[in-house]
Design goal:
The protein is mainly alpha-helical. It contains six helices and no strands. About 70% of the residues lie in helices and about 0% in strands.
Length: about 150
C-alpha cells in the first residue's frame, strides 16, 4: 500500500486540470480495488441479503464498465469511490467484524481516495495559474480602456 500513497514520482503536465483531465496510469489503479470489493460483496450476498450491498455492487459495476481511463477525469472517479465508501461505511455499521465485514476492501479504497486527493492538491497550482492567465487575458482590454480614460 505504501506505493499507492507515494506520489513523489508523479509529474503533472503544466496544463493538467484534475476536474477535467485524466491521467490514464492513475485511472487504471481503480480497477483492482473495485474487483476485490465486488468479489467480497458477492461472497457476503450469498449469505446475507442487503439493499446496501446491492447498491455497492451496482456502483462498482457502473464504475468498472462506464469509466474510461483515457477520457474520464480523476475527479469523477474520486466521486464514485467516495459514494462507494459512504455505502460501505453504512454497511460496516451493521456488519460483524469477522463474518461479513469489508474492512480490507474499504482500506484499499481509502488509500486510493487519499492518493487522488493528493493529486488534486498538486493540480491546484496549475489551475490557479490557468485562472490567473485567463483573467489577465480577459481584463487586458479593460485595463487599456481604463488607462486611456485616466490619461484624458
Amino acid at each position: 500500500m505504501k506505493s499507492v500513497m507515494n506520489i513523489a514520482d508523479l509529474v503533472l503536465p503544466s496544463t493538467y486540470n484534475f476536474y477535467h483531465d485524466t491521467i490514464p496510469q492513475e485511472a487504471r489503479l481503480i480497477f483492482q480495488p473495485l474487483a476485490q470489493l465486488q468479489a467480497r460483496v458477492r461472497d457476503i450476498l450469498k449469505e446475507y441479503e442487503s439493499p446496501i450491498l446491492i447498491d455497492v455492487i451496482f456502483l462498482a459495476n457502473y464504475m468498472m464498465t462506464t469509466l474510461n481511463t483515457k477520457t474520464t477525469p480523476l475527479m469523477k472517479m474520486l466521486t464514485g469511490m467516495e459514494l462507494l465508501l459512504e455505502k460501505l461505511d453504512e454497511w460496516q455499521s451493521y456488519a460483524s467484524k469477522k463474518l461479513n465485514s469489508c474492512h480490507d476492501e474499504i482500506n484499499s479504497l481509502k488509500m486510493l481516495i487519499i492518493r487522488y486527493r493528493k493529486i488534486q492538491i498538486l493540480s491546484w497550482r496549475n489551475l490557479l495559474n490557468h485562472k490567473r492567465v485567463k483573467m489577465i487575458r480577459e481584463d487586458f482590454p479593460n485595463c487599456l480602456r481604463l488607462i486611456h480614460t485616466v490619461e484624458r
